[in-house]
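Dear support,

I submitted the protein below through the web form. The confirmation email said the job was done, but the results page showed an empty box. After a refresh the structure appeared. I'm attaching both so you can tell me whether what I see now is the final result or a partial one.
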Amino acid sequence: MSRHDDLMRIREALEAGVEAVRAFTPGAIEYEEKSRCGDPVTAADLAVNEVLMETLPVQGEGWLSEETADSPERLQHRRVWVVDPLDGTREFVQGIPEWCISVGLVEDGEPVAGGILSPPSGQLVLGSLETGVTLNGEPVGMTNLRSLEGALVLASRSEWKRGEWERYRNAPFQVRPCGSVAFKLAQVAAGLADGTWTLVPKHEWDVAAGAALVKAAGGSLLHADGSRPRFNRPRPLLPNLLAARAELLAELLEVWLV
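What the results page shows now:
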């Protein structure tokens, strides 16, 4: 199976997911809270999850989704689909147009291909390590900024509200709150922002697709301790994630995360 085939499958899955979510109205949908964490889940999340499961994995491939009970069986596979059927459910429930469908492909622990489809913005960001990144079919890439001076950095809306970005009040870069970590990573990969990071734990399904896109666009991914993230681990929880050009992350780690 070629990478072109993988990307076609990702695109088909994302488009099918959008069709599934059309039956629901953002800002006017009931939700329940997951008992383990209190995060909201809606019928839209579950409907898209079902469509993605039907479209993506074939025999010999693993599956990891926010809306499917995890199984150690995925650890036996070198190719694993890591998806978030609706990343930004909280924004979806509140009617904030910062949510998306997120599909990532991991091979041997590395995110190698992914796609983010954001119905509110009409953006489809698709890419792989072999092919680069496209935005609605047009080639795109990271910005050329080599310093945090004047950079646009996307912050978690929740972290912003909790005051966790106060440390950057006097930083030389602009901070913009935004929902959905997958959407933020896609913006960075497409050159619409210079970087994004979170200093709180994120699950693999939150970031796998966006991580693949950032890497495909020539960007770097790090943890706050300078190590590189690995995926398809027994416990799919990353301590934090930083995404930008290597030069920006080096400056961040040296000056702003000390």
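Response: this is the final, complete result; the empty box was a page-load delay. The domain at 3-140 is CATH 3.30.540.10 (Fructose-1,6-Bisphosphatase; Chain A, domain 1).
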